[in-house]
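quick q for whoever's on today - can somebody do inverse folding on this one?? i tried earlier but teh output was garbage lol. tokens:
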């Protein structure tokens, strides 16, 4: 299946298989717990069956996160309704966040504080980028409609803060903010500024470095 290609997901087949084996049972357990918490009007196992297996839900989420692919496009690829894709992403994304990022054997980073501590303890370079993704203009009459207008790119967008190491491996990706939110404001709200100022590993490490990346202005 082309959507499972590494160029699409950013992950090898072995890593995807590992995620399915690790997160699939957890997703099933939570799904059953949610069903069990509702007052039932039908017997267990009655009703419509899932049209997306967990592996497909994971793939849809990975492509959405990597390429900001719209839910409508993903729904066409998988042959389901947009609402099914939206629900799948809403269920799988928290599982990925809780799992964290594995950077080496036995080292898994789940929070921004752990990322900063990991980089500072080893004196590694960290690269920060405030990335914007263009979105549709909110409906007319919505009271917060102007919040999504990016002052930098003059378009409707949401932005996220990404931290990578010197080799380009993504260590942290924040929740999105409206495009009008300044990068420094976003960093303060995430606690990044405070962490860099107070983390003792950054004061004791001989060569800690954090670089903020920004594109060069166009020539001419």
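ok took a stab at it. sequence:
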């Amino acid at each position: 299946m082309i959507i499972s290609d590494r160029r699409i997901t950013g992950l090898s087949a072995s890593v995807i298989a590992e995620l399915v084996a690790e997160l699939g049972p957890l997703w099933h357990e939570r799904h059953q717990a949610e069903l069990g918490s509702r007052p039932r009007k039908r017997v267990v196992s009655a009703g419509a069956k899932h049209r997306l297996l967990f592996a497909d839900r994971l793939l849809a989420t990975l492509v959405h996160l990597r390429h900001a692919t719209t839910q409508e496009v993903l729904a066409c690829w998988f042959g389901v309704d947009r609402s099914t894709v939206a629900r799948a992403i809403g269920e799988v994304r928290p599982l990925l966040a809780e799992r964290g990022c594995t950077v080496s054997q036995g080292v898994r980073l789940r929070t921004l504080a752990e990322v900063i501590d990991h980089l500072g303890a080893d004196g590694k370079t960290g690269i920060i980028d405030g990335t914007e993704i263009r979105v549709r203009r909110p409906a007319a009459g919505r009271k917060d409609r102007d919040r999504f207008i990016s002052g930098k790119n003059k378009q409707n967008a949401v932005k996220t803060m990404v931290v990578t190491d010197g080799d380009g491996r993504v260590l942290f990706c924040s929740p999105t903010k409206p495009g009008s939110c300044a990068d420094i404001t976003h960093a303060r709200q995430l606690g990044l500024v405070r962490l860099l100022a107070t983390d003792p590993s950054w004061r004791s490490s001989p060569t800690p470095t954090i670089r903020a990346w920004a594109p060069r202005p166009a020539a001419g």
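fwiw The chain has a mean pLDDT of 80. also Residues 45 and 99 are 29 Å apart (CA to CA). so keep that in mind when u check it
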